[in-house]
Specification:
By secondary structure, this protein is mainly β. It has one domain: Beta-galactosidase, Chain A, domain 5 (Distorted Sandwich), CATH 2.70.98.10. The chain is 4% helix and 40% strand. It is built from two helices and 20 strands. Strands 5, 10, 11, 13, 14, 15, 18 and 19 form an eight-stranded antiparallel sheet that branches. A hairpin with a 5-residue loop joins strand 13 and strand 14. It binds 6-O-phosphono-beta-D-glucopyranose. 6-O-phosphono-beta-D-glucopyranose (BG6) binds next to strand 18 and strand 19. Its EC number is 5.1.3.15. InterPro entries: Aldose_1/G6P_1-epimerase, G6P_1-epimerase, Gal_mutarotase_sf_dom, GH-type_carb-bd. One of its GO terms (biological process) is carbohydrate metabolic process. GO terms for molecular function: carbohydrate binding; glucose-6-phosphate 1-epimerase activity. Pfam families: Aldose_epim.
């Protein structure tokens, strides 16, 4: 048997849009569209898809791709001139040929660097100079790491402020069999109740109706346990204090044009985010936000989220 080497390939995706495919030696892979720097596929070494993408997703600008990992920048919620979730997810990014140094771990050998800079049109709706660099890493073990570095490149002394999220759509076998651990007892803003603040009660989160919550100052590690599939996703975040949990459920699903009526049963968004306290960058300053996700058989997962508690698969 010949050992395969990891690879990074630029090819054409749906509707001829540019797509980068990362492949690791054990068989895992990741696909990223230049449109939105949008990760649309993350497969483990058995070739199983771990991200949800709607069958109705539209791979055509200006619509953001429904599913995968849209990047919400420069705002999470929709206010002012800016659209809901900002514009980074529907701009054409470029491959960053000469990214500034980023310390790399030896298991992070398969990656692509992308960059977004404002156009004159963008400047009209968000008048700020920035460079947004995204590194997408597929580790040897098949984990997917997203590292965003946003720099204020203004020469006129103007700071800017933004909010941010990695809007990650995980694929699950049956939403009613899913449990999220790590967010219990946390404070959250409920988007379904005009962002009123509540405290999560009791045990791990389970799902039986629409949910749209922003957990504030959530712990860095969150587990999404898919009982039916016996798979646990572990999300690790740095520089991103908040975490959004979203599932539209049946009624809202029907109202979303690029989302199938029953698809809510097979997805859950858990999103590392910075929303409650927007980030301000002065000229020359840079912000970094990282999300790492891994998928493990539930029985293998023993990393306690809380030192007093161990998860059972
Ligand atoms: C979630 C928000 O992150 O994204 C929801 O909390 C929103 O309020 C959902 O409905 C989907 O947003 P969009 O813009 O991709 O349809």
């Amino acid at each position: 048997m010949t050992a395969r080497s990891p690879s990074v390939e630029l090819c054409k995706g749906n509707n001829g849009l540019g797509k980068i495919v990362l492949r690791e030696t054990r068989g895992s892979s990741v696909e990223v569209y230049l449109y939105g720097a949008h990760v649309t596929s993350w497969k483990n070494d058995h070739g199983e898809e771990l991200l949800f993408v709607s069958n109705k997703a539209i791979f055509k600008p200006p619509k953001a791709i429904r599913g995968g990992i849209p990047i919400c920048f420069p705002q999470f919620a929709g206010t002012g001139n800016l659209e809901q979730h900002g514009f980074a997810r529907n701009r054409l990014w470029s491959i960053d040929e000469s990214p500034p140094h980023l310390a790399v771990n030896s298991s992070h050998r398969t990656f692509v660097d992308l960059i977004l800079k404002p156009t004159e049109e963008d400047f009209k709706i968000w008048p700020h100079s920035y460079e947004f660099r995204l590194r997408v890493v597929l580790t040897i073990g098949g984990d997917l790491i997203l590292i965003s570095r946003i720099r204020n490149t203004s020469t006129d002394g103007k700071p800017f402020t933004f909010t941010f999220a990695y809007h990650t759509y995980f694929t699950v076998s049956d939403i009613s069999e899913v449990r999220v651990e790590g967010l219990e007892t946390q404070d959250y803003l409920d988007n379904l109740k005009e962002r009123e603040r509540f405290t999560e009660q009791g045990d791990a989160l389970t799902f039986e109706s629409e949910v749209d919550k922003i957990y504030l100052n959530a712990p860095p590690k969150i587990a999404i346990i898919d009982h039916e599939k016996k798979r646990t996703y572990v999300l690790w975040k740095e520089g991103l204090p908040d975490a959004v949990v979203w599932n539209p459920w049946d009624k809202k699903a029907k109202a979303i044009a690029d989302f199938g009526d029953d698809e809510y049963k097979h997805m859950l968004c858990v999103e590392a985010a910075a929303i409650e306290n927007p980030i301000t960058l002065k000229p020359g300053e840079e912000w970094k936000g990282l999300q790492e996700i891994s998928a493990v058989p539930s029985s293998y997962y023993s990393g306690p989220l809380d030192p007093h508690k161990v998860l059972h698969g």
